[in-house]
TrEMBL record:
GO terms for molecular function: methylmalonate-semialdehyde dehydrogenase (acylating, NAD) activity. Residues 17-477 form the Aldehyde dehydrogenase domain. Belongs to the aldehyde dehydrogenase family. CDD domains: ALDH_F6_MMSDH. SUPFAM superfamilies: ALDH-like. Gene3D superfamilies: Aldehyde Dehydrogenase, Chain A, domain 1, Aldehyde Dehydrogenase, Chain A, domain 2. Its EC number is 1.2.1.27. It comes from the Bacteria. Keywords: NAD, Oxidoreductase. This is methylmalonate-semialdehyde dehydrogenase (CoA acylating).
Length: 497
């Protein structure tokens, strides 16, 4: 009988009573790994009720104790780092090196969660009026929810629940039904680190289960990472149900290449940032904007990209793994065909890629287009595959105008030897995360992940100080005490007896 993947409820792996199950496959072989339940809403209701009860106790636990839980958890994650990465590789197809990076970037956020106390300090003003003081308190919201995507099964859940729980909340995690195994393992290790039962619950499912969470009155805040249409839906639905929402959506990230840049660094970084993780990351560089004579490097870029090969997760010689599903591959192949039909030059076509020993995998080789314009579908859509499109412009001003006209604002970078060009770019560009000679400028966890415009719906971003504010509320107290109520010495002595 095929393995039924359990929910994680009240500190235990619990097999659902679901009548509907979805196959979970290895994208490198399309072999069946198990079946994930479309969890009945009554089971989710029970998980939420248990989380509510757990949070009532947890919010009274000293913040130093909550921080120590995170220290124990990060220690355990480091001990089991390779184990988690191997599991992650098998369900996503990521290379082991990429999977290890996925886990490690999550661990860095857990370490930041251990520093939660300094981010939950309120403010005090003495004598706002005569003998009256005012001060603010930072308090948890209650039960929060996270809905996570397939492409980073360790990092993105770890963006969410450690900070939420360190701030005093309980958490319901609904991972992608395509990659449920890593999320369950993260929850098991969190319990092993000493977390009280029911503080973190993992429930599986699809749209029906998500809708139940978005409308449930006990859920106070929703964190989401995924596609643009789904992010818009999550944001609209959850806010209509009076919930706080952060919804991270798609992207079209540009790297601007100035003619004075280091050519070797440009080509090396363009290759890695465009095809790494099979291009399945919201911070991938998918558009190279060559300014002036820098366009002469496109031929050499094609030659270097042609050397890159996908393959199985445990092959140390390969650069990246398969796309997550056959449907995902078909979508990217169709976009590649649209680029050819609309007049772009396909310098490198990975559509017919095969990997020895895994003929059924969802493989796609590196693909490179030149002669692209902004009216083409391959420019307008987030491809989410190992595809890079090249655009040529005459000046830095032209490049800035092009990037700012794009509806997305997740990440961008500029490669240049000119400090003046770099400063102008970072100042004028309407994108939330900017790299200067750095291709994928994902901030470390003491900052926040700050996508803008069509890449983000909400106000407060993931991890860092903004995440603590997202998962908490501010209470302001105004206090007055009267001198006449101060007991004198004898009265105080009688009261103490």
């Amino acid at each position: 009988m095929m393995n039924k993947i359990a929910n994680f409820i009240d500190g235990n792996a619990v097999v659902s009573r679901a009548s509907e199950w979805i196959d979970v496959t290895n994208p490198a072989t399309n072999d069946l790994l198990g079946m994930v339940p479309m969890t009945p809403t009554d089971e989710i209701q029970g998980a939420i009720e248990q989380a509510l009860s757990a949070q009532m106790h947890w919010k009274e636990v000293a913040i130093s104790e909550r921080a120590r839980l995170m220290l124990r958890y990060q220690h355990l994650l480091k001990e089991r780092h390779d184990e988690i990465a191997t599991l992650l590789s098998k369900e996503t197809g990521k290379t082991l090196a990429d999977a290890k990076g996925d886990v490690w970037r999550g661990i860095e956020v857990v370490e930041q969660a251990a520093n939660v106390a300094s981010n939950m300090m309120g403010e005090t003003v003495e004598n706002v009026a005569t003998d009256i003081d005012s001060y603010s308190l930072i308090q948890p919201l209650g039960v929060c929810c996270g809905i996570t995507p397939f492409n980073f099964p360790a990092m993105i859940p770890l963006w969410m629940f450690p900070i939420a729980i360190a701030a005093g909340n309980a958490f319901i995690l609904k991972p992608s039904e395509q990659v449920p195994l890593t999320a369950v393992r993260l929850a098991e290790l969190f319990h092993e680190a000493g977390a009280p039962p029911s503080l973190l619950q993992v429930v599986h499912g699809g749209k029906v289960q998500v809708d139940f969470l978005l409308s449930h009155q006990a859920i106070q805040a929703v964190s989401f990472v995924g596609s643009v249409p789904t992010a818009q839906y999550i944001y609209q639905t959850a806010t209509a149900n009076h919930k706080r929402v952060q919804a991270f959506a798609g992207a079209k990230n540009h790297m601007v290449v100035m003619p004075d840049a280091n050519k070797a660094q440009v080509i090396n970084n363009l290759v890695g940032s465009s095809v790494g993780a099979a291009g399945q990351r919201c911070m991938a560089i998918s558009v190279a904007v060559f300014v002036g004579s820098a366009k002469e490097w496109i031929v050499e870029l094609a030659a270097e990209m042609a050397k890159i090969k996908p393959g199985l997760w445990d092959d140390p010689e390969v650069a990246y793994g398969p796309l997550i599903s056959q449907q995902a591959k078909l979508r990217v192949v169709n976009l590649i065909e649209s680029g050819k039909k609309q007049g772009a030059y396909c310098l490198l076509d990975g559509s017919d890629c095969m990997v020895e020993g895994a003929p059924q995998g969802n493989w796609l080789g590196p693909t490179l287009f030149s002669g692209v314009n902004t009216d083409m579908e391959i420019y307008q859509q987030e491809i989410f595959g190992p595809v890079l499109v090249c655009i040529e412009v005459g000046s830095l001003d032209d490049a800035i105008a092009l990037v700012n006209a794009n509806p997305y604002g997740n990440g961008t970078s500029i490669f240049t030897a000119s400090g003046a060009a770099a400063r102008k770019y970072q100042h004028q560009i309407l994108v939330g995360q900017v790299g200067i000679n750095v291709p994928i400028p994902v901030p470390l966890p003491f900052f926040s992940f700050t996508g803008w415009r069509g890449s983000f719906y909400g106000d407060l971003h993931a991890y860092g100080k903004q995440a603590v504010r997202f998962y908490t509320e501010t209470k302001t107290v105004t206090a007055r005490w009267f001198d006449d109520d101060i007991p004198d010495g004898p009265n105080l002595t009688i009261q103490l007896r």
